[in-house]
Task: inverse folding
């Protein structure tokens, strides 16, 4: 066996061990199971990025994955319009309001919050892509208790990797310019959301309108640990 092959095998083993070591411990779904939510109201998104259109673009992507997870989701733009007419046009104001008050406007079981931490096009010499970073929080509509929280960063490569370094550089620059002009990074946003809610032990259990409802207790256990979040970034609402 050549020295190069031995080195490659050692590197592969190291990567595998590192991946296993970095596996996240499952969140605790005790409070979530006790709340047993059936409906979700998604409130306007807080946008910490420099992309002005990010909040509305992202808001438009959130209903489908939650509905497919088995929850009744109140129509986003009806919610946004009602909140604006009720004096809650500012997302920051909505996120810091009492969750019980927000939920009572719609009769919702839970309130779903999202903050955009990053939403940018990245250019890295021979490849370009879209970088998104979000924090998701789900709170009980009666008590305001945090039931689940997740933080996701996702990079979606949009060009590069052809093998021709000069062609890749040109394509990456053009693609990044187009991405910045279009400002529609919803495919990357969708991927991050699906990653957040679907991963066993980290995502959301299935709701009552899904066939898997209450059949996923092993994937989303009530461990009693009290850990409902893997976020390293603090959400705006911390009570």
Result:
């Amino acid at each position: 066996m050549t020295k190069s092959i031995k080195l490659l095998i050692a590197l592969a083993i190291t990567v595998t061990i590192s991946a296993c070591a970095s596996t996240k411990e499952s969140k605790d779904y005790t409070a979530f199971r006790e709340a047993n939510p059936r409906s979700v109201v998604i409130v306007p998104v807080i946008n910490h990025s420099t992309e002005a259109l990010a909040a509305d673009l992202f808001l438009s992507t959130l209903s489908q994955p939650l509905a497919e997870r088995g929850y009744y989701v109140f129509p986003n733009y009806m919610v946004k319009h009602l909140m604006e007419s009720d004096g809650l046009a500012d997302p920051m104001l909505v996120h810091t309001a009492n969750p019980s008050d927000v939920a009572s406007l719609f009769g919702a079981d839970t309130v779903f919050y999202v903050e955009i931490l990053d939403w940018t096009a990245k250019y890295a010499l021979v490849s370009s892509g879209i970088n998104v970073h979000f924090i998701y929080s789900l709170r009980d509509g009666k008590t305001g208790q945090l039931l689940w929280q997740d933080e996701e960063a996702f990079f979606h490569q949009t060009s590069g990797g052809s093998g021709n370094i000069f062609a890749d550089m040109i394509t990456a620059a053009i693609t990044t310019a187009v991405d910045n002009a279009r400002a529609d990074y919803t495919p990357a946003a969708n991927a991050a959301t699906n990653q957040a809610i679907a991963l066993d032990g980290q995502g959301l259990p299935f709701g009552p309108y899904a066939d898997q409802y209450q059949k996923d207790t092993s994937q989303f256990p009530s461990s009693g640990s009290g850990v409902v979040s893997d976020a390293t970034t603090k959400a705006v609402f911390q009570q």
